[in-house]
Design brief:
The protein is mainly alpha-helical. It has two domains: 54 residues, no CATH class; 46 residues, no CATH class. It contains 13 helices and no strands. Helix 6 crosses helix 7.
């Protein structure tokens, strides 16, 4: 019914061929979401972006279990840019797993700066 009630709906691709061919000529038009183009293309360029939450459920649950994971980059922008400015920040847990496991294996590592603020200066 739409083309009958609104003939331009049917003729738009004829009057403006680029409306129909845009996704063919420029695939990113079809793949990229309107609000955030990088969301869909990231998963295509790097499939692990899509599969990470499946292979490692904690990736998906982290923001729920620890809301500061989501707000940290907002409250402290350097949290988000650190891996870009200093790539070793991102690769350290991979090259040295004990860095990531330390707060789990020894909870005092994570709580020390809270319980003893001077400890955070010493750890740096």
């Amino acid at each position: 019914m739409a083309p009958i009630l609104n003939p331009s709906a049917a003729t738009a691709p004829i009057l403006n061929p680029s409306a129909a061919t845009a996704p063919i000529l420029n695939p990113s038009v079809a793949m990229a979401p309107i609000l955030s183009p990088s969301v869909d293309t990231a998963q295509i360029l790097n499939p692990s972006v899509a599969t990470a939450p499946i292979l490692n459920p904690s990736v998906a649950m982290a923001p729920i279990l620890n809301p500061s994971v989501v707000t940290a980059p907002i409250l402290n922008p350097s949290v988000a840019t650190a891996p870009i400015l200093n790539p070793s920040v991102a690769t350290t847990p991979i090259l040295n797993p004990s860095v990531a496991l330390a707060p789990i294996l020894n909870p005092s590592v994570a709580t020390a700066p809270i319980l003893n603020p001077s400890e955070s200066r010493r750890l740096k």
